[in-house]
ATP-binding cassette domain-containing protein (Guptibacillus hwajinpoensis), 258 residues
Amino acid sequence: MSFLQLNAISHVYLTESAAKEALSDLSFSIAEGEFVSLLGPSGCGKSTLLSIISGLLQPTEGSVSLQNKMIQSPGERMGYMLQQDYLFPWKTIEDNCYIGLKLLNKLTPEKKEITLALLDSMGLSDVRHAYPDQLSGGMRQRVALVRTLATDPDLLLLDEPFSALDYQTKLKLEDLVFQTLKAHQKTAILVTHDIGEAIAMSDQIILLSPRPGKIAKIFQVPSQLQTLLPFEARNDPVFPENFQMIWKELDSLEQSPT
């Protein structure tokens, strides 16, 4: 039984002068605990697809179900982490981490304790009383991850969460996110333009075609890479050949006439 199931998803954006098809007849499933990356040319509909999965956007056609329940609106079963951290600058780090729990009316002493333990596991316990402008970009993204995990979502949606960071911070945060999601046995979907990041973090990579986005190919990441930390995976002998394989496929898609 699939944890997440997408059935024949199509989406059209309507303007006063035109109709633009963003996604076309897209179907796939994800198992519980799996980490899947969405990869494809710019404008192929990756972020649109993530918005549909989250329930923020209703598809023109098709359906999405999570644990056999249809997704028709945003809910607590989803956790969304974006490129920008969107921390409230007037709230402390600790209070920022409680936002989701407060909105869901679930800010119990037990949940506070769990959230503080998450902060500690991210190396942030000593800045819990600080404010966002006192933290680096990497630290702010770690806070955003704690805030996302604090509500204990069934599915995490990661929309290029590392793209605004410097390369060294990005690599360190990849490892931290990977370890954290595995430790909490979370299912996750990552939108990225970075082939290396997709290989290093994922169990499966779904390559989308240029707009309208369709599934061009699905790559299974070798099992020996799936068990390694992302930084270690990048240094494994099979990493370069997988990178080249996906690179060639992506390049051929971008060169193809649309």
